[in-house]
Amino acid sequence: MRSNLIAALILIAVGLFFLAKNLGWINGNIGSMLATWWPAILVAVGIGMLFGRGK
Predict the structure, then answer these.
(1) H or E segment at 34?
(2) What is the pLDDT of residues 6-32, one digit of tens each?
(3) pTM for the whole thing?
């Protein structure tokens, strides 16, 4: 069930990204976004692993 939740959240995030890109709210350059936000992504993955370990 947890993997279904994670997959659903990933699909929602990807969909929101493309929607925001199509509406012109964000720049569509994924490379620059990853270059800026990679530390936050690592922290989020680490927190997810930490909380996932208890189950």
Answers:
(1) helix 30-53
(2) 777 778 888 888 788 788 888 767 777
(3) 0.52
